[in-house]
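This follows on from our talk about sequence and fold. Go ahead and set the record down below:
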Amino acid sequence: MAKELELKYGCNPNQKPAKIFMKDGELPIQVLCGKPGFINFLDAFNAWQLVSELKKATGLPAATSFKHVSPAGAAVGLPLSDTLKKIYFVEDSELSPLACAYARARGADRMSSFGDFIALSDICDRETALLIKREVSDGVIAPGYSDQALEILKSKRKGGYNIIQIEPSYKPAPVEHKDCFGITFEQGRNELDINNELLANVVTNNKEIPEDAKRDLVISLITLKYTQSNSVCYVKDGQAIGIGAGQQSRIHCTRLAGNKADIWFLRQHPKVLALPFRSDVRRPDRDNTIDVYISDDYMDVLADGTWENFFTEKPEPLSREEKRAWLDTMTGVALGSDAFFPFGDNIERAHRSGVEYIAQPGGSIRDDNVIETCNKYNMAMAFTGIRLFHH
């Protein structure tokens, strides 16, 4: 391992010189293939922390799909239903627990995950490498790779795919520094251990949070710990299904993430599953087409005849009434927020996407209004007392 690593440039090509380095000791990583860039490493190091904490909290293999220093998806390695296998395009794949985690992390928001950086909590196996190989991705970081997995990944991008191995025992210094405008900032690292104990203070009339929902709330909070603020995260069945990052208002985070959660669920609608795609339509084009089909603009697409580029026959539109009826069947969703909800409108929006369990710091002067809105829908909400801003 080296003390420093020269990079081609920083965030942009005009930002030179660029490197990563350790003030003391050696870098805890080895680049096994490719030439990762400045943003690649920012994604990789944030993503690695996220999956490490998910594994510690749940005991399950974990994966995340990162784009521009925020997760597009994060998940643990629970088995996939036949429906999820279909919408994640893994029906024909062998799925180890780690591969399930990656399929979930990538599949939650496939459009945002296009060109992602991947982190895996466990040694990358053959099954996971085969899934990664066929997706458009910038690179992967993991504590190790099986011989078969490394061979598969090294063949990606004509041998230029970025493969990073990190030393899992590495512990960063307790105080961290960051330069901005020539000025150095210093702070203690956010070493908060996120676990079920943070969910003990349930402030709503409904005090019941099942174990699966607690797991999902913990997943949402750990995901938020490494998501650019403001941020909220919707989670269901061990995977993030909607992440709203970097918004200036809480309600815009909630709407953005809620819309993503809705799209994830609408992809499972029988009409979407039955879309008559032409065999030559690639997965990214299918993703884009499904997104248009689900949107309110689809009638315009039908009108100009472009459906023939994607389908063997003209699909019947999915009406607003059908979409709303389908979304009304989504239940059991968990929602985490990196800071308090200032108004009950966030809860109203969350309810429309099947949220039944919430974890947030609390501390707003309108906490009573937020609690009252939760009680209106029989939601259970825990005040964690902990803010999770990340910048």
